[in-house]
């Protein structure tokens, strides 16, 4: 099938993109990498009147650290994230995430902003961003606002708190503190598939080895990306020993809301959240204490 | 909108609509190398380079390419100047059906542009977005490595025999002398012996250069596009169907429903007449029997208009109770799928039994009663799909003589002609079927999926019509590899001697039974005879359900039968405390023994079709002349390091730790087609330059059969394979063939070609004898020339000119046929080593070893490629492929993401050993492509059982099934005795 008719607009600046979104409101859709949107158009699951192509906005493709924050332009392609020295060295959890998304052809064009704004609970970046405590920059007609990641997703799949006239322009991640580490683990039926379950874990330890920050995000085990708050709570202040990790993993599994589908029965997925959380926390601990 | 497209170094100004996809625009503009495979960007067949980066053009708007540079394979290299990648793809045997090749080449090209020295892992990663269903990927990886070396300026040893340049060598008739010449012995190019040599695929150049080789790669003026309306109900009667609005939509030329065409009971199964399966299908019917069943078909100016028209068709359905499980379908009171009186050939319509196959020898019950041990087991095979990358497509049109041309991606052109004739009312003389290269078949293109409707639309509109399936259509509305439930019961003596064996099979035939009879027969015929014992029983029922119909599939049922039997053998060994290989060696088929089930006395196919071809063609007992099982098993045992590894494995508790490893072995046998005689024909004729046209009706689906046939003809005629020009199947010009699929039928076609070549050789020799004035018997034919004992020689071209234009003009040509059943099975042993994560159930295959006894190997590169592809498909089938439905019979796995097939990253190391025949019969050529898939699943299941101590009896071996089985076993172990 081919997409239904729409008006195709190429935005040559962020301002122009926002003006177009402001003009057309909910009738408009933003076209970034297109790997999620174009199949939706082809199968007529989305029929926007206007398509705003933002692929020419090269000034939204960047990764840089400034003022203790990593700034990632929303149009940054997965392939660049994956290949970046900065990301590999300082944010291995992000490299973990980018490299398990679909296949390299997809990653050539898919963008980090699209992966988040599509709000598919099966997408991989949301869990990682939840674990990292990222902030998202939404740019609208009246300027920018910061949305903490846990307020970005709503209770419904494929829905965010972005306004129709706002564009996700940047992702901000706190620069890694000393003794911090994270990992993203994904269990797949086959390489490149959506996750059966995925777990992102990120921890910061103090000099005595106590957890001062813990973030756990879950992929594809609920209607939305899930932040395992109770599990994070369990970890905070602990020494992150195996017993605590096991306890937190059980808690994270309890916080998952999986349903039975093609990727497995609900109870299997829940069990896998526990296994993966355990492994992700161990790897996060290892990275936080100087290991790989 | 105006689009300035910079493509392959050319700037084109095009008018495109904003919603047009780049894929469609490129194909419209004649860039046929860009293939339509999946509509989602999952398969990579439509990959192009955008500013040097690979991108699936099916999920990109054409307008997005504005200002970018687009590269397709047409821009990579040509016949005269191949890019090193194109060269190494051919050389390494990495081109099979060729449908994925252009996309694969572009992904590889982009990789080498940025990384001239990639690691194997980097290559696998770079190719991961391009699915291939034929090769098994390892040859592709090798080809990319070798191209990288070439591009770095390194020398590489060719794998295949380099191209002779014969295709484009110039020929000067003006200076051609007709006089015999003295053979000096110098300066004459020696032609290598073709048989047994790694010749390049003769048709690979067109595929790596992206030439329009496939059914859909053409355009016709006035072409209409057809779309199919399918049923949303699993079972319903169409109370009323109103097409008024759809017909009124501008651009719509025809809307057909059951009301518009005659109701003719038929079968879509492309098998020799009279087809043995039920005739229970109608091109369009008033009853729909599965979600996805045909309801109506529309032809319109564009696919988009046709799609819109479908939405305007008003259908009033009366839903009927549906049944999806064959066990329930057999129960009294179950919904009946085929109560209609017009259908015929159904074994028992009242009980939903489409077909029934029964073989028996000895007294099975008495043997069970006297057995010292009885082992029983039930095995479940999933419903899966062929998932060839090329979707079903047909283009039909009237030619200048008012004859209907059907251009189709089919493996059974003559059957298409006969069946389309029956369904359109046109006599066969008015139909011409052209079968270009098939972009992957695996059995899925043995059925008529689109041809009849496309033809009916051309009849209705008098216009050329194209009906192409989308990937969703493929999953929902074509044919499936049927689910089977197989029960085994084996009676043994304590020493491991099998005294009775029984296999009962329930095949989920789906809504129509066309292929059900042959599928039912195949599961048993290609497994049980491995262990002949005096008392054998095989009984299979194919049962109707409200699911897509069962089709044919690679290995003709061996895959299913062997998963059950070879898993069961390991279970028996465990019960006996015996080595599983020793158990096999004790009971297996031996040379000189009769093949069970093959003689008519033992076979009872209960087809209600009069004269149906399912009666065994063997009038007498068939004894096995040769059996390669011992050598195959020995090789696999050694290469897998079985003894050593087996000691480390064996039951979970012995191994501790999260990751556990195991090894498993299974045996296989395969008879190309045990139930039907094959008739294959070949016509060969000489051209002035000493080349030959070979006309055959055996389609080429990528298994290399045309190359093998060219090698055989070339061998007999003293030329190179590239001097044999193969004409693709065309029922107007290529001779009759009952081929039911290219792999099996190769056996018969080989002999037809050999005979035709031998006849042509005799004709050549007699012409030369006349010219050289010596007896024909004294002449020799080799190296493009015919030589007399004294050294006087004539070139083939000279002989051709003399024959065609000389004193007694006579064409040099012959047609020959071969009609015989094959009674030389292929044998194989396959071994698998796995690693299982006991916390997640995830399985990683570390190694696959395959030893195949396939008679004389004509082309080792092609043979190994077939085997590797079979291994990949077998692993994919065993680990991840399954079609899943909801409770209403709606298919949930409708794309290549949800229905996942192996990619380059999933393939393990493989080791392939071809058992060379004893050389006594160079034409002992057997099927290799089918057996390669056959024993992968049981070897894998046996390896998992070895790793975990847990037997899984249901495929695919998904992580949750493995974990669940482990959990059950642990619960049982924890329970106090």
From TrEMBL, chain A:
Short name of any one Pfam family annotated for the protein: CO_deh_flav_C
Gene3D superfamilies: 3.30.465.10, CO dehydrogenase flavoprotein, C-terminal domain, Uridine Diphospho-n-acetylenolpyruvylglucosamine Reductase, domain 2
SUPFAM superfamilies: CO dehydrogenase flavoprotein C-terminal domain-like, FAD-binding/transporter-associated domain-like
GO molecular function: FAD binding; oxidoreductase activity
The keyword rRNA-binding is assigned to this record: no
PROSITE patterns in the record: FAD_PCMH (PS51387)
InterPro entries registered for this protein in UniProt: CO_DH_flav_C, CO_DH_flav_C_dom_sf, Diverse_Substr_Oxidored, FAD-bd_PCMH, FAD-bd_PCMH-like_sf, FAD-bd_PCMH_sub1, FAD-bd_PCMH_sub2, Mopterin_DH_FAD-bd
Annotated ranges, domain FAD-binding PCMH-type: 1-178
Keywords per UniProt: FAD, Flavoprotein, Oxidoreductase
UniProt name for this protein: Carbon monoxide dehydrogenase medium subunit
Organism from which the protein derives: Thermogemmatispora aurantia
Lineage per the UniProt record: Bacteria, Bacillati, Chloroflexota, Ktedonobacteria, Thermogemmatisporales
Automatic annotation (TrEMBL), chain B:
InterPro entries: 2Fe-2S-bd, 2Fe-2S-bd_dom_sf, 2Fe-2S_ferredoxin-like_sf, 2Fe-2S_ferredoxin-type, 2Fe2S_fd_BS, Ald_Oxase/Xan_DH_a/b, Ald_Oxase/Xan_DH_a/b_sf, Ald_Oxase/xanthine_DH-like
GO-annotated molecular function: 2 iron, 2 sulfur cluster binding; iron ion binding; oxidoreductase activity
Domain spans labelled 2Fe-2S ferredoxin-type: 1-76
UniProt keyword list: Iron, Metal-binding, Molybdenum, Oxidoreductase
Keyword Ribonucleoprotein: no
Similarity field: Belongs to the xanthine dehydrogenase family.
Official protein name in the record: Xanthine dehydrogenase molybdenum-binding subunit XdhA
Organism ancestry: Bacteria, Bacillati, Chloroflexota, Ktedonobacteria, Thermogemmatisporales
């Amino acid at each position: 099938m081919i997409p239904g008719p729409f008006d195709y607009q190429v935005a040559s600046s962020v301002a122009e993109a926002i003006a177009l979104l402001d003009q057309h409101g909910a009738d408009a859709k933003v076209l970034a990498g297109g790997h999620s949107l174009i199949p939706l158009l082809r199968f007529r699951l989305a029929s926007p009147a206007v398509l705003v192509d933002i692929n020419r906005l090269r000034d939204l493709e960047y990764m840089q650290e400034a003022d203790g924050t990593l700034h990632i332009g929303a149009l940054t392609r997965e392939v660049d994230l994956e290949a970046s020295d900065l990301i590999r060295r300082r944010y291995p959890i992000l490299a973990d995430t980018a490299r398990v998304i679909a296949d390299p052809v997809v990653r050539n064009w898919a963008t980090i902003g699209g992966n988040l704004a599509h709000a598919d609970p099966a997408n991989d970046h949301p869990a990682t961003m939840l674990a990292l405590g990222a902030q998202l920059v939404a740019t609208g007609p009246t300027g920018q606002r910061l949305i903490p990641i846990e307020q970005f997703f709503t209770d419904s799949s494929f829905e965010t708190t972005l306004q129709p006239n706002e564009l996700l322009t940047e992702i901000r991640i706190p620069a890694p503190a000393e003794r911090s580490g994270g990992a993203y683990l994904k269990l797949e039926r086959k390489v490149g598939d959506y996750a059966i379950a995925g777990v992102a874990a990120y921890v910061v330890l103090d000099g005595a080895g106590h957890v001062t920050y813990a973030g756990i995000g879950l992929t594809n085990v609920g209607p939305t990306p899930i932040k395992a708050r109770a599990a994070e709570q369990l970890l905070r202040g602990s020494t992150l020993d195996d017993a605590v990790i096991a306890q937190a993993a059980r808690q994270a599994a309890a916080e998952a809301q999986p349903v039975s589908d093609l990727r497995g029965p609900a109870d299997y997925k829940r069990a896998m959240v526990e296994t993966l959380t355990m492994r992700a926390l161990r790897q996060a601990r290892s990275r936080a204490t100087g290991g790989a | 909108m105006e689009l300035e497209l910079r493509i392959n170094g050319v700037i084109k100004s095009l008018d495109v609509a904003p919603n047009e996809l780049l894929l469609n625009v490129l194909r419209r503009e004649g860039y046929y190398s860009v293939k339509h495979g999946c509509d989602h960007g999952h398969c990579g067949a439509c990959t192009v380079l955008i500013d040097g980066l690979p991108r699936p053009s099916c999920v990109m708007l054409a307008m997005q390419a504005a200002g970018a540079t687009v590269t397709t394979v047409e821009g990579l290299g040509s016949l005269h100047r191949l890019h090193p990648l194109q060269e190494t793809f051919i050389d390494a045997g990495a081109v099979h059906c060729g449908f994925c090749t252009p996309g694969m080449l572009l992904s590889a090209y982009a990789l080498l542009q940025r990384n001239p020295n990639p690691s194997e892992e980097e290559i696998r990663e770079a190719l991961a977005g391009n699915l291939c269903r034929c090769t098994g990927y390892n040859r592709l990886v090798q080809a990319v490595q070798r191209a990288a070396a070439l591009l770095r300026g390194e020398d590489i040893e060719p794998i295949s025999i380099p191209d002779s340049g014969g295709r484009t060598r110039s020929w000067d008739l003006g200076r051609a002398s007709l006089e015999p010449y003295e053979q000096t012995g110098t300066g004459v190019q020696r032609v290598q012996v073709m048989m047994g040599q790694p010749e390049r695929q003769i048709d690979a150049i067109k595929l790596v250069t992206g030439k329009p080789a496939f059914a859909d790669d053409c355009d016709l003026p006035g072409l209409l596009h057809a779309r199919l309306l399918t049923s949303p109900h699993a079972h319903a009667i169409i109370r009323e169907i109103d097409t008024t609005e759809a017909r009124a939509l501008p651009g719509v030329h025809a809307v057909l429903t059951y009301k518009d065409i005659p109701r003719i009971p038929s079968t879509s199964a492309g098998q020799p007449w009279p087809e043995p399966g039920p005739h229970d299908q109608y091109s369009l019917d008033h009853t729909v029997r599965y979600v996805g069943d045909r309801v109506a078909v529309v032809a319109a100016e564009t696919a988009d208009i046709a799609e819109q028209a479908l939405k305007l068709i008003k259908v009033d359905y009366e839903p009927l109770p549906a049944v999806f499980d064959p066990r329930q379908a057999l129960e009294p009171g179950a919904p009946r799928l085929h109560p209609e009186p017009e259908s015929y050939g159904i074994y028992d319509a009242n009980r939903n039994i489409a077909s029934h196959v029964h073989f028996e020898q000895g007294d099975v019950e008495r043997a069970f009663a006297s057995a010292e041990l009885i082992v029983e087991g039930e095995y479940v095979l999933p419903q899966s799909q062929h998932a060839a990358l090329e979707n079903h497509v047909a283009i039909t049109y009237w030619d200048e003589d008012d004859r209907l041309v059907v251009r189709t991606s089919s493996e059974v052109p003559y059957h298409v002609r006969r069946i389309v004739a029956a369904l359109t009312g046109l006599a066969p003389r008015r139909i011409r079927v052209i079968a270009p290269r098939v972009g992957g078949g695996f059995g899925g293109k043995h059925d008529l999926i689109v041809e009849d409707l496309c033809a009916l639309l051309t009849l209705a509109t008098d216009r050329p019509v194209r009906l192409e399936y989308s990937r969703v259509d493929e999953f929902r509305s074509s044919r499936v590899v049927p689910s089977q439930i197989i029960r085994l019961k084996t009676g043994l003596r304590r020493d491991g001697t099998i005294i009775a064996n029984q296999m009962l099979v329930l095949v989920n035939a789906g809504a129509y039974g066309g292929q059900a009879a042959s599928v039912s027969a195949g599961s048993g015929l290609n497994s049980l005879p491995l262990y002949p014992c005096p008392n054998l029983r095989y009984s299979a029922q194919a049962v109707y359900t409200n699911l897509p119909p069962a089709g044919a599939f690679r290995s003709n049922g061996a895959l299913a039968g062997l998963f059950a039997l070879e898993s069961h053998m390991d279970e028996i060994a465990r019960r006996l405390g015996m080595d599983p290989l020793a158990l096999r060696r004790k009971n297996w088929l031996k040379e000189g023994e009769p093949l069970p089930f093959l003689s008519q006395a033992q076979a009872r196919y209960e087809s209600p079709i009069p004269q149906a071809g399912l009666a065994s063609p063997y009038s007498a007992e068939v004894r096995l002349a040769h059996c390669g099982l011992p050598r195959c098993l020995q090789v696999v045992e050694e290469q897998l390091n079985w003894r050593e590894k087996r000691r480390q494995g064996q039951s979970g508790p012995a191994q501790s730790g999260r990751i556990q490893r195991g090894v498993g072995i299974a045996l296989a046998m395969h008879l190309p087609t045990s139930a039907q005689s094959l008739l294959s024909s070949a016509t060969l004729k000489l051209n002035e330059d000493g080349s030959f046209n070979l006309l055959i009706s055996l389609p080429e689906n990528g298994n290399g059969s045309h190359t093998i046939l060219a090698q055989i003809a070339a061998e007999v005629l003293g030329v190179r394979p590239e001097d044999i020009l193969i004409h693709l199947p065309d029922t107007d010009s290529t001779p009759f063939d009952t081929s039911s699929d290219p792999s099996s039928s190769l056996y018969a076609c080989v002999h037809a070609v050999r005979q035709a070549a031998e006849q042509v050789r005799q004709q050549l020799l007699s012409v030369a004898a006349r010219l050289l004035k010596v007896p024909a018997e004294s002449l020799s034919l080799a190296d493009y020339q015919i030589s007399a004992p004294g050294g006087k020689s004539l070139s083939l071209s000279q002989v051709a000119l003399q024959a065609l234009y000389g004193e007694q003009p006579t064409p040099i040509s012959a047609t020959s046929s071969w009609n015989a059943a094959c009674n030389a099975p292929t044998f194989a042993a396959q071994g698998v080593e796995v690693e299982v994560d006991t916390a997640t159930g995830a399985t990683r295959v570390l190694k696959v070893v395959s030893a195949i006894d396939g008679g004389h190997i004509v082309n080792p590169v092609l043979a190994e490629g077939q085997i590797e592809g079979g291994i990949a498909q077998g692993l994919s089938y065993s680990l991840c492929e399954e079609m899943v439905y909801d409770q209403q019979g709606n298919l949930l796995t409708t794309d290549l993401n949800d229905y996942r097939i192996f990619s380059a990253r999933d393939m393990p190391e493989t080791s392939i050993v071809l058992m060379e025949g004893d050389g006594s019969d160079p034409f002992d050529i057997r099927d290799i492509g089918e057996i390669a898939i056959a024993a992968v699943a049981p070897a894998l299941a046996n390896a998992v059982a070895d790793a975990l101590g847990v037997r899984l009896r249901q495929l695919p071996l998904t992580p949750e099934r493995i974990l669940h089985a482990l959990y059950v076993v642990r619960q049982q172990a924890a329970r106090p005795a």
